[in-house]
């Protein structure tokens, strides 16, 4: 099978989070299963600067977007054994950030989607069986494929599916702008087509016109069909439920491996972790200027500072939490108001807390290895990768049981003394506080249970192998239906 994975991000080339991490791991896992999977993405400024010597020019063409006549370059390079195609245009992608302004991003990714379809076949030397799309930035491709190509006799055997990483962002703009950019026939500009409440919606188009829709965890696939999590698309998703499935993300288990990670103070395994993890904790406390207290549980949070991540819950009970015998480290950037409130909390509790307002992958790895408890009190979480990375390093996640967090973390059972972390159900700050107190109590008073939980968490399978097999089966279903 030939699969073209279409994405706006790819780690390590250019990534802002989970989408880039998935795109950087899943195609390689699928290739190991014997599928011919390749990736196409924008050629951002950061990629040009960092990988200029590796880029191979293939061709250029002209893309028309309404009154605009735009150059589109096609380059290629290999990333970890995966062929990657890159769409070049400095006006759209020659910026310091991957995403600029919502209105301009609609135009940028309209260009990208049209350029991808123009590059299929002879230009890139690859005609895929399936276009595997990701999020709103690729959602119009099935519509464009049908209206601009298949109806004219081109790419007749190309199918598409879309993965929803985060339903909150949908790609919405006015009819006039989208018609100008994409030149869609009137038959598609309807409520049964690409319109949602009278305006074009890129994600809705992707859901409606793709052969299959996947989410990044089974639980999230069910949640998005409810009013609370559906972001206005729940009725559409319910009507299309026959083609929706949840496939859990994995992580790069070679990159995130405490037995060989060069970033951490001491390596360790699930069979012998106590000494190594203790040294990692001591080193992290020293690096951050916290008291080196082995018996004090060290809580950590590595996150984008955004309301989705449950920052309001944490900040509401932060002073009460830090009145306990615990330490807390928060690493991340984002909303300036959250940054200030975290800095203020550090000022009130200098012996208990550190707020590192930065994006630092290296420090993140040292936190995963050195912390005891990893906080993820998310309001919603389509899958989440951090909790799986934390468990791989023997740091027990404390999560709100939503989305992929509910699928991956088994909450502590005080009667059976089992679990791989701690969980609470409701969006309630004091449930978070009580669960933190419970985790601290188990850490200090029930080391047998704690040690068993750490060992169980570290021995979990968080690789892409299982998920890759599920994607392969889904691709085969699509091909059987369309051939």
Account of the 3D structure:
By secondary structure, the protein is α/β, with parallel strands linked by helices. It has 2 domains: 2-250 and 465-482, Glycogen Phosphorylase B (Rossmann fold), CATH 3.40.50; 274-458, 3-Layer(aba) Sandwich (Rossmann fold), CATH 3.40.50. 40% of the residues lie in helices and 18% in strands. The protein has helices spanning 18-32, 45-51, 90-93, 102-119, 141-149, 175-182, 202-209, 218-223, 234-239, 274-288, 311-322, 336-348, 361-370, 386-392, 403-408, 429-445, 447-458, 465-482, and strands at 2-6, 36-42, 56-65, 68-79, 82-88, 130-134, 159-164, 195-196, 199-200, 212-215, 244-246, 298-302, 327-331, 353-356, 373-376, 396-400, 422-424. The strands form 3 sheets. A 9-stranded mixed β-sheet has the order 3-4-5-2-1-6-7-10-11, with helices on both faces. Strands 14-13-12-15-16-17 form a 6-stranded parallel β-sheet, sandwiched between helices. Strands 8-9 form a two-stranded antiparallel ribbon. Helix 10 (274-288) crosses helix 13 (361-370), helix 11 runs parallel beside helix 12 (336-348) and helix 11 packs across helix 16.
Q: How many β-strand runs?
A: 17
In the CATH scheme, what's the topology name of the largest domain? Rossmann fold
Shape verdict = elongated
CATH architecture of the largest domain: 3-Layer(aba) Sandwich
Domain count: 2
CATH homologous superfamily of the largest domain - what is it? Glycogen Phosphorylase B
- Average pLDDT confidence is 95
Helix content bin: 25-40%
Count the DSSP helices.
18
The major beta sheet can be summarized as: 9 strands, mixed
**Assembly context of the chains:** single chain
Q: Strand percentage, roughly?
A: 15-25%
Q: What radius of gyration results from the CA coordinates?
A: 23 Å
- Going across the biggest sheet, name each strand in turn: 3-4-5-2-1-6-7-10-11
Structural class given helices, strands, pairing?
Answer: alpha/beta
Low-confidence stretches: none
- CATH top level label of the largest domain: Alpha Beta
The CA-CA distance between the termini, in Å, is 13 Å
């Amino acid at each position: 099978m030939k699969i073209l994975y279409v994405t706006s991000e790819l780690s390590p080339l250019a990534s802002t989070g989970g989408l880039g991490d998935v795109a950087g791991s899943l195609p390689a896992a699928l290739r190991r299963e014997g599928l011919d999977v390749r990736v196409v993405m924008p050629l951002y400024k950061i990629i040009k600067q960092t990988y200029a010597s590796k880029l191979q020019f293939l061709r250029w063409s002209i893309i028309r977007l309404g009154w605009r006549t735009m150059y589109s370059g096609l380059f290629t390079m290999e990333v970890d054994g995966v062929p990657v195609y890159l769409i070049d245009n400095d006006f759209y992608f020659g910026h310091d950030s991957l995403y600029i302004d919502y209105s301009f991003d609609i135009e940028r990714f309209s260009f990208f989607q049209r350029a991808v379809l123009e590059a299929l076949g002879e230009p890139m030397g690859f005609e895929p069986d399936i276009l595997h799309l990701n999020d709103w930035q690729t959602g119009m491709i099935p519509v464009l494929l049908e209206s601009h190509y298949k109806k004219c006799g081109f790419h007749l055997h190309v199918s598409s599916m879309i993965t929803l990483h985060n339903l909150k962002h949908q790609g919405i703009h006015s009819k006039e702008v989208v018609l100008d950019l994409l030149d869609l026939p009137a038959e598609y500009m309807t409520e049964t087509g690409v319109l949602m409440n009278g305006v074009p919606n890129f994600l809705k188009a992707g859901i409606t016109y793709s052969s299959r829709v996947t989410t990044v965890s089974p639980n999230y696939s069910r949640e998005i069909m409810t009013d609370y999590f559906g972001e206005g698309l729940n009725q559409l998703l319910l009507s299309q439920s026959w083609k929706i499935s949840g496939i859990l993300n994995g992580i790069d288990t070679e990159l995130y491996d405490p037995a060989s990670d060069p970033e951490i103070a001491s390596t360790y395994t699930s069979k012998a972790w106590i000494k190594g993890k203790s040294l990692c904790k001591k080193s992290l406390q020293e690096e951050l200027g916290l008291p080196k207290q082995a018996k004090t549980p060290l809580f950590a949070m590595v996150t984008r500072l955004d309301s989705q991540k449950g920052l309001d819950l944490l900040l509401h009970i932060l002073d009460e939490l830090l009145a306990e015998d615990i330490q807390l480290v928060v690493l991340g950037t984002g909303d300036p108001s959250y940054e200030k409130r975290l800095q203020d909390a550090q000022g009130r509790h200098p012996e208990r807390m550190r707020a590192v307002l930065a994006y630092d992958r290296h420090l993140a790895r040292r936190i995963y290895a050195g912390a005891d408890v990893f906080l993820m009190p998310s309001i919603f979480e389509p899958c989440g990768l951090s909790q799986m990375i934390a468990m791989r390093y023997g740091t027990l996640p404390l999560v709100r049981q939503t989305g992929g967090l509910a699928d991956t973390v088994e909450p502590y059972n005080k009667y059976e003394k089992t679990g791989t972390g701690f969980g609470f159900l409701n969006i309630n700050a004091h449930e978070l506080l009580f669960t933190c107190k419970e985790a601290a109590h188990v850490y200090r008073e029930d080391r047998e249970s704690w040690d068993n939980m750490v060992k169980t968490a570290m021995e979990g399978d968080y690789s892409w192998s299982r998920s890759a097999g599920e994607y392969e089966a889904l691709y085969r279903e699509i091909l059987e239906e369309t051939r």
